[in-house]
Amino acid sequence: MQRGRKKGEKGIMDLIDRYDAIDEVNKSIGLNAYEKELVKGILRYLPSAQKTGRWIDEGFYSENHNAIAYRCSECGWHCIAYAHELFNYCPSCGARMLKGEEDE
Predict the structure, then answer these.
(1) Rg of the chain in Å (alpha carbons)
(2) Which domain holds residue 44?
(3) Within a domain: 29
(4) Does residue 90 contact residue 77 with C-beta atoms inside 8 Å?
(5) pLDDT tier at 103 (50, 70, 90 boundaries)?
(6) pLDDT tens across 14-68, in order?
(7) Which residue from 4, 46, 52, 82 has the highest number of Cβ atoms inside 10 Å of its Cβ?
(8) pTM to 2 decimals?
């Protein structure tokens, strides 16, 4: 079985749970205590691979203009909500929604 990707090859990124990986390191019998702590330290400080997106105002409003139609910039999922009640994450794809001038 070939693991990883070749240089320039595009594909789906594998996402793993950081805490599951740390548990696997703890169960490892091939590493001594120092090596386990070293690997766990690296896992704790790796940047998250979580995707981010934004809610896009679709321009459709309710009759009283309180509820607005929004679309996820990552997957296109639609919802109708009050601006102050928007989800922090997209229920469809799990993207963390950025607000205002936050960097992606």
Answers:
(1) 20
(2) 14-49
(3) yes
(4) yes
(5) very low
(6) 667 778 888 888 898 888 999 999 998 888 877 666 788 999 988 877 777 678 8
(7) 52
(8) 0.48
Check if the beta carbon of residue 55 is closer than 8 Å to that of residue 75: no
CB-based contact 97:54 (threshold 8 Å): yes
Q: What whole-number distance in Å separates Cα of residue 39 and Cα of residue 87?
A: 35
CA distance linking residue 33 with residue 66, whole number of Å: 58
pLDDT tens digits, one per residue of 62-81? 777 678 889 999 889 888 88
CA dist 71 and 58 (Å) reads: 7
Q: Which amino acid is located at 13 in the chain?
A: M
How many distinct structural domains can be found in the chain? 2
What pLDDT is recorded for position 2? 47
Establish if 90 belongs to a structural domain: yes
The burial of 40, by beta-carbon neighbours within 10 Å (0-12 exposed, 13-18 middle, 19 or more buried), is given as middle
Q: Give the count of beta carbons closer than 10 Å to the beta carbon of residue 25.
A: 17
